[in-house]
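Re: weekly structure request thread

Next one in the queue (136 aa):
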Amino acid sequence: MRAPNGYEKVVTRLRVANEEKARRTQLMEKIPAGENYEKRRRMPPNPPRTFYEKKTKIQADLYIDVNIAPGKSGRIAVNRGDNPVVLADGFAKTFHLNRQMKEALIKLLEENMRALLAEPEPDLGSEQVPEPSQEV
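Done, posted below.
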């Protein structure tokens, strides 16, 4: 007796499917093992540090609060040697200021930076550190 048309094709397809299923089942049931695996598995998860660490703020020489509109203001951090045009340009782009307001901001920054430069720069290296008292 002869096999029906396409019998071999169907049987081959079913065998391949069963082999693929067995391979997937084996992968799912595989227990990872290796160097330090058990030790690492027992450790608590270690999330990226950026989520939990507090950000350290860089101390600026001068902060300028700019009132843009009623209820809307911004703060510019100014350090010695900063370019007032660059600071004003960045602030203007952030707050969508027009050219006239940007020019006024540049003048304000130049005045405040002149006053900042007139002040003596704090010398952090020359502070006298008190010596610890020696007790006998």
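Residues 62-118 form a domain with the Ubiquitin-like (UB roll) fold (CATH 3.10.20.870). The helical segments are 7-29, 37-42, 84-95, 99-118.
Next request, please.
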